[in-house]
Amino acid sequence: MTSQPDYFTKYENLHFQRDESGILEVRMHTKGGSLVFTGKTHREFPDAFYDISRDRDNRVVILTGTGDAWMAQIDFSSLGDVTNPREWDKTYWEGKKVLQNLLDIEVPIISAVNGPALLHTEYILTTDIILASETATFQDMPHLNAGIVPGDGVHVLWPHVLGSSRGRYFLLTQETLTAQQAHQLGVVNEVLPADLLLERAWELARQLAKQPTLTLRYTRVALTQRLKRLVNEGIGYGLALEGITATDLRNA
Hints:
Elements (H helix, E strand, L loop, with lengths): L13 E5 L4 E6 L7 E2 L1 H16 L5 E5 L8 E2 L10 H19 L5 E5 L8 H4 L3 E5 L3 E2 L3 H5 L7 H9 L1 H9 L4 E2 H6 L5 E3 L4 H13 L3 H36 L4
Parallel strand pairs: 2-4, 3-5, 4-6, 6-7, 7-10
Antiparallel strand pairs: 1-2, 8-9
């Protein structure tokens, strides 16, 4: 294992820690509390996931949040003028790259959903094992509330996980699923008390880390081929449609 890489201190809203077996915990936060999603996180998360993907000392990744929420707040004003096509072009590029770079992390990823996940739940659905706290909920909150198409990957991944009809219902009604409902529907693998969530994530990560490194890497590659195809086919078109509706907000 090499010394701590530079990217561990590069991103204001991500905290990194890695043990000697190569298990990397990535914890999203805002000033040490639950993450507030902003234009800055939208810009930086694609780069962060790229850095993780190219660091071959990472052998298993745990992605989690801080405090009571996985991701439940968004600062819309920080995203810039989304009705301006030139501004949306940045959102379009970043929105594509964040999922592509997540899927290019070629080691197993465990999501530890520590509380409400109300936006960018597509991140969770790119991971291999999904653990949820009993306090977790799942919803696509921001898109229809803002009057725009849910086209940032949720339109691909929720119908893939829930089934076409059930996934469309989830997005169109802005349904909120409890952790237990998500487990019953096959989205979540395990539901745990909040104080045991990370302990279980690390237990599973240590179990995986016993495998040879190439086995870990190529198993992730094998298991994500279909997801990569689905995301690559749908993400650009979805974000383009989302951008059209964002542009139309100036006429609302």
